[in-house]
Amino acid sequence: MVGANLSPLFLGTVVVYFLIILGIGYYGYTKTKDEEDFLVAGREIGPLVGGATLSASQMSAGTLVGTFGVHYLLGFGFIWIWPGLWAGWIVSLLLVAPQMRRFGRVTVPDFIAERYRDDGADGNYSRAIGAILIVLAYTVYLSAQLTGGGIVFQSMFGLAPEIGIIAMALTAVFYTAIGGMRASMLTDFVQAIIMAVAVVVALPLAFTFVGGLGTVNAIFQSFNPSFVGQALSTQEIVGFMAAFGFSIAAAPYEITRIYSMRDEKTVRQAIGITLIFQAIIGTSVALLAVYMRVMFPALSNPDLASVIMSLNVLGPILGALLISAIFSAILSTVDSVMIVSGAGLAHDIYVKLFNPDATERQKLWANRISIGILGLIPLVLALNRGLVGDLVQFIVVLQASMMGAMFFMPLVLGLHWKRVTTAGGVAGMVFGFSTVIIWHVGTEIYSFIPESLAANDPVIPGVLVSFLVMVVVSYATGKPSRKSLAPFFDDVTVADGGTDERDT
């Protein structure tokens, strides 16, 4: 099953896919003239491409490798992650996405710097803290994506996974650094279509082989009755739902894409489209994984399930399409995260803090070099997976917990509650992030978290601590300046003459 003999038709289909993606990357390079083009695609993206890119950037190796593998391992119960994710999109639709598009900057730290600007440096200290936390959390996330790429290469070619991890890292760094956001979003559109078509077409074909869903369900239940019921505890279900829900509502790589859309109406339409994409793909992945458990009940690594289906079940064309979908899932997220992480280092730290007079050429190359640097760092984690865990999906959940805990409350409260202060917002980010790290270490490495609490996902204490710290610190410090509120609240203006009274 691993290192299968691949037909020329199979390999040719995969090669054509990569050539198309690299061609789009070059097209993005030719259209990128300045930093705004590179980071937000000139704000020209419409609802269809926008919805597809929101889907593709979220549905990473965690979906077609990790989620597939967890369904293979645990059954249907893991499907509850999707309602949590969709709830996060609804929260974003109501409380975050339109407001951030109206704000209309480039990165999430741009928001942090503007809303939490009362730090004695016009928001630059707040910006730097936000950017550093993004880089740290997304380093973990990129390690999961590269791990997924290594699994695919190992299964296709029989190579050591480390070779695939390195190959995926170099490929992603190259085409992301040259093409920027326009290339990223256009490739995401192609990749979302490939993912949806691959899983939908594979579904009836796979189940036809074994006599339909009823037969699969009966065989699956014979392994373990919980496979068709609920193999996860209530705490685990709530934790997974919360991790993905809080994370997607505040994910910097999704908000950067929201900045790239034409207007607030486009943002709302795009979120509706992404919900359709994700419903189709999420349901199909669960069903296909159950099928694979019936057909191949003893895989040593559950993360191999989707790849083995491509190589051994679906035939050369459809199998190559599903392999391309897996590569799509990985690359569409890797390019999104690399752009955001690179912008954190180049736009938010280098330009805003150290070289505000940089030319557009300097800004462009700063972003490209940053992508190169930050794209290679996750190799250390990917090649030493014991540092954060082994199964791809659980690495993804850890990252989601970090992102939700450190940004959900600072974004939502910052956009809708005038009393939040700079000290409160920054403390919320830092304490939310720190709580997730401590909780992970205390449950997965040293076991100092009480057993009765350990089943809770780190995002739950993380978001709770972030909220409480923000409220307490905000009331313990002076009211925020009008200048920090005016861009977000229509009834607040900076006083005539440029004064900045704190009488809100």
Automatic annotation (TrEMBL):
What is one cellular component GO term in this UniProt entry?
Answer: plasma membrane
Localization per record: Cell membrane
**Biological processes per GO annotation:** proline transport
Q: Where are the transmembrane segments?
A: 6-27, 79-97, 125-144, 156-177, 189-220, 271-292, 304-331, 369-388, 394-413, 420-439, 459-478
- Gene Ontology molecular function, alphabetical: proline:sodium symporter activity; sodium ion binding
Q: Domain of life, per the record?
A: Archaea
Enzymatic reactions: L-proline(in) + Na(+)(in) = L-proline(out) + Na(+)(out)
This protein is called what?
Answer: Sodium:solute symporter
Q: Which organism is it from?
A: Haladaptatus pallidirubidus
